User: What shape does this take?
Amino acid sequence: MGFVQRNVEINLDSDGPVAGVRPFADSIRRYLWLLAAVFLSLAVTVVGFISWEEHIEKSFQARLQLYHEATVFQLAALTETMLVLSRVVAPLENSTGPAPPDSLHRLQEAMPAFQKHLGEVVGLQGRFADPAFEDGVAELQASYESLRRAAESRAGIGREVYRHVTRLHGLMEEVEVGHVQMARKLREQRVQAEHTMHTGQVVAFTVVFLVGLGAIVRLVGLITGTIKAQHTAEQAVRESEERFRLLAENIEAVLWVSGAGDAGPVHYVSPAFEAIWGVSRDTLRDNPRLFLDAVHPDDRERISQAFERQAEGGYDETFRIVRPDGEVRWIRDRAFPVMGPQNVVDRIVGIAADVTLVMNAEEERRRHQEELAHVARLSTLGEMASGLAHEVNQPLAAIANYARGSIHRLEATGDEAGVRPALEQIDMLSRRAGDIVRHLREFVQKGETRHAAADINELARRAVQLAEPEARRQNVRLKVNATHGLPPVRVDRIQVDQVLVNLLRNGIDAVAEHTGGGEVVVTTAQDGNMVVVSVRDTGPGVSEQVQRQLFHPFYTTKPNGLGLGLAISESIVEAHGGRIQLDANGGSGATFRFTVPVDSGQSKDNQEA
Amino acid sequence: MGENEFAGQTVFVVDDDEAMRSSLAWLIESMGLAVRTFADADAFLSGYDPEVPGCLVLDVRMPGISGLELQEQLGAKGVRIPIIFISAHGDVAMAMRAVKNGALDFLEKPCDHDEMARAIHDALRRDREQRAASVKAGEARSRLTSLTPREQEILKLVVEGHSSRAIGDQLGISGRTVEVHRARLMDKTGAESVPDLVRMVLDADSDA
Assistant: This one.
């Protein structure tokens, strides 16, 4: 701090007595010399300071970038825990009673992690002077509070808890989108700010220089002040960076930063990568293509295409990877584009989490559902077996009669043309029997859920064929009231068949028990992008008491029923993204109605369950 | 093929299943027999003339009047047409009931055709015998009713195998008188021998 000392010296000299012109001229000369010296060293310092300041500025910018990335990660981590919460409360969607204890328990288990990440995000408030972000976070906090209260009071209503989590989820996405936009804006302002800051300093310096030496003290103060402020900002950035690093190095998910494009350079990958991928980070850094190569061959094409969307921010993919040891894991990878100075996306930050457990649990749940549905189909078929055997036996017996009759005729008369009508009947009947057998075999098949385009009217007719023998036995007429020109639906044929057979059989039983005669009518119609199927019977309707437990598993009003029909129908319809309900009910019978989605003509097999 | 054997007889088929009905008609016609089909019991009851000789092939399970109910209704009306039941369900209880009620046979669908042919032939023969027997029984009955009470008394004891003397002892008349009655009743009934007489009595009883 040489300035200060020199200042003191000047002050001492100026305080000295002034005698005559010469001493004054001497003084002037001394002053001039001194002034020149001061000016020179100041100039050197200023030049030095400017370049030094530029250096600080650059590193500040770099760190701000990291800081921004860290907040993106915070939000991403928050979203991850959000996902866990959503999964936990999903079953509560339709429950109006108290939330089941195990759901509540799992919810309460999942909440601390969410609270922690929410705290981190809340801690970011005020850093970006962005009202949208502040509002979003405040609302997020409030919404979380109500969720916490609903979950803590055990009397909380299931649907209420679900509603809160859904609201939180929506808010999360708003805040996240808002934040990414805000971060871009901030960057632009920052460029401006940087510019202003730079010229501001020069102007101040000039002004100080013109006003005189006395102001140099202020200048020094200003500079040191700026430097100090710079230090504080730097420290905040460093702390934030430290926090980011702690988060990045310790979180189970992989945080990554890469250049844009499908095999852009990898700037950063957090250590969790090595545990999940089973590959060292250096290997990935040396060969960025390894990321795509590790993707399971069945998913690779899809992910490769998705990479192109990273720069627009539309990247959120769940896929499988194959580790070098052959183990397959599920990854959920999301990416956020980051704008460079030229308003061009110059890097992508992302978070990739190992969701194998979640997917396995999901897979397990789906498999259990499939198995249960299969068992229920077997049981249904068992109950219908004698009627169905008759249905197959009848054409077989007729075929045998035609065949033997034809042999007799040929033996007696040799009239080959005469047996033609019988052969035609045999042809028709054998196809009828084959059709039934094929349908039965399909019905008991235990297979993976396979969604494909199907004609709902044809499905309705097939189901009626299966339920027909029982209807005939019970003296009930079955009718299909098909709306023509319906678009194809996207369903698992066997499962929808199962739903229809369940509803038809319930209808038949209701009618038979009621009057011992009547009808069950299947009606198809379109409602927007869903197709609606109604099954109406002329039975006694569903009593209020039964209605309440209608869709509960193992609830049955039938002496030999398993009580799985409607519960399974409900889970099947919901897995298709539709709804099933008791639509109309009364003395003139009950109408059950369910919806399935219209086929939008997309890819053949959708992985998302 | 005894085509001529069953001339004039008709096989009636009652089955609600169209394919089953038509194919049975095709099969039975191919055996050289006349066939008439009905879609349900009501149609049969209104279209069937008991005077027409033949047999009935009947589906057990039908909507409306079932096969078993039709059998009972026919029995109640005194119609004795031989019935062959066919059923897709191997239902033992139902078969027992049908046979108890006089069904000739109970076949399971799809049935063995030789068995079916045999059953139909048996049934047609049975019908023919029944009709002949019922004619004979009618004749025998009218002959037997022309006997006086004493002659009938003696007839009963003759058929039971008693000798004239034993009959005389039992009735408190002389053997000679029994001989006279016996000669007269042989004459009235037209019987040529005692076995002939026995057969006649059995015939008359058979159609009660």
About this structure: The two ends of chain B are 34 Å apart (CA to CA). The domain at 146-206 of chain B is CATH 1.10.10.10 (Arc Repressor Mutant, subunit A). Chain B has a mean pLDDT of 85. Chain B has two domains: 4-135, 146-206.
